TrEMBL record:
GO terms for molecular function: methyltransferase activity. Keywords: Methyltransferase, Transferase. It comes from Luteolibacter luteus. One of its GO terms (biological process) is methylation. The keyword Nucleotidyltransferase does not apply. SUPFAM superfamilies: S-adenosyl-L-methionine-dependent methyltransferases (SSF53335). It comes from the Bacteria. Pfam families: Methyltransf_24. This is Class I SAM-dependent methyltransferase. Coiled coil: none annotated.
Length: 254
């Protein structure tokens, strides 16, 4: 890392600790990646203690149910991109992260997957108390979701603890942290909120974090909020939208 880049990181760190906001809700047209690229493992930067240490995963059922989490698009993208790091925005029970992990193993790639989620549920998870697959999966305890522990149990049951790292924080805050730490990824999967403004903000926040030649992709093209946000972002950045099975893709120029 050059001295100037070290100074920039030092200044950003000082500004953060002094209480200045690092949030940049920018126009998508202004997104140009000029940062560095942290090459190590991200987990030690996030967790002093292994998040799986001492967790009783056997006390929870085998339940990695989700939507689009077993798509063949994951394996195809891993084979095509050969990622060194993957960021997933919106994880639920971890089904798609586990599919990605299995694809990495098949390709013999030592890549880390960072899963960003609050595990509190998106809007549609809270709108119908009779929906066992959505509201029921939140597994409320004293009114607070415990879905995160089902995610941990699924990762442990699959033996993917060393590869998958949870980052339990809102997506925009996570993007700020990645930027502060110069963390980039070859594949970034957007599958959090389905509300147009939320999806658009995730696209703005994470596009700069995609390495040259990498792919930002997502699910739920049939949702109006997702489709309109992706089309808007692609139009503003003159990016072609491609589709691979049930996923949409935006490829960053090499």
């Amino acid at each position: 890392m050059s001295l100037s880049r070290q100074v920039q990181r030092w200044i950003k760190g000082i500004a953060y600790h002094c209480g200045f906001s690092l949030r940049r809700l920018r126009s998508a047209k202004a997104n140009v990646s000029t940062g560095g690229d942290f090459a190590g493992k991200v987990r030690p930067l996030l967790h002093k203690v292994d998040p799986y240490q001492g967790f009783d995963w056997q006390s929870l059922p085998d339940d990695r149910s989700g939507w689009g989490s077993d798509s063949t698009a994951f394996g195809e993208l891993v084979a095509a991109i050969k990622p060194r790091r993957i960021i997933e925005v919106g994880t639920w029970k971890g089904g798609s992260a586990l599919t990605l992990a299995e694809a990495l193993e098949k390709q013999g790639l030592d890549a880390e997957i960072i899963c960003v989620d609050t595990w509190l549920g998106a809007l549609e998870m809270w709108t119908d108390q009779e929906d066992a697959g959505r509201f029921g999966s939140l597994a409320l305890k004293h009114g607070y979701p415990t879905l995160y522990y089902q995610f941990l149990a699924n990762v442990c049951r699959a033996g993917q603890q060393t590869r998958i790292t949870p980052f339990p924080i809102p997506s925009v805050t996570a993007a700020q942290w990645f930027s502060l730490r110069d963390v980039r990824a070859d594949l970034i999967y957007i599958d959090g909120s389905h509300e147009e403004d939320d999806v658009y903000q995730d696209l703005v926040s994470y596009w700069d974090l995609v390495r040259p030649g990498g792919v930002l992709f997502g699910d739920d093209w049939s949702w109006d909020g997702v489709r309109l946000a992706v089309e808007r972002f692609a139009r503003e950045n003159s990016l072609p939208i491609t589709h691979r099975h049930d996923k949409w893709e935006l490829k960053r120029p090499a």
